[in-house]
Write a structure and sequence with these properties.
alpha+beta, four-stranded antiparallel beta sheet
Length: about 200
Amino acid sequence: MDFASLRASKARYTLVLSLLSGLSFLQHASFAAAAVDADDALGLCQVETIPKDIRDTLERRFYGWKVQDSGNLLPKIRQKWASTAPLACPGIATGHFEDSRSVAYALLLVPVDRSANGYKFVVFSAPSGQSFYGFKMLDQAAINASTFFIHPVAVDRVFDSALKKQFRPKGNDAIMLAFADDRTASQNVFFWKGDSYDHAQIDFN
């Protein structure tokens, strides 16, 4: 192959790679956009989906805060959320976090004022058979919350036998707090220890 043919071949190869890269980006972007549309259409982040006792507490104790929604996420974290839990609200996670007989609700709250920074990560739980929910503050910070979302995950999925022996989780489910920006990404799993919550950074897909 002569030099001119080699250059032409390399140019075609570069063009194909560029087209494939662009197609992959468009597919991810379309997927993320579709997930946001599903969030809006299905009302996944409407507080009416959670028990009234929790809603009353939100009005009394967390005035000026709302549940994180997909429209508040930055593009990169929106793509991550869309590939992880597209048919769930990025600010609501439900599961048997403390008691296998009752459902608990984890909420990622962000300021109603989109120009304000901060988030509050809270879990509401009630004794089995009761409708009155207490809450526990798991995490909070005065930083931009558009890089965070939560979702439930089975304890057996994130902890192997060695990690179970190390951390001793008590619930069937845990809560994953996911974060990503232009430089780093992390997943912190919060789990019930029997009398309080603990957390650990876990790498899992």
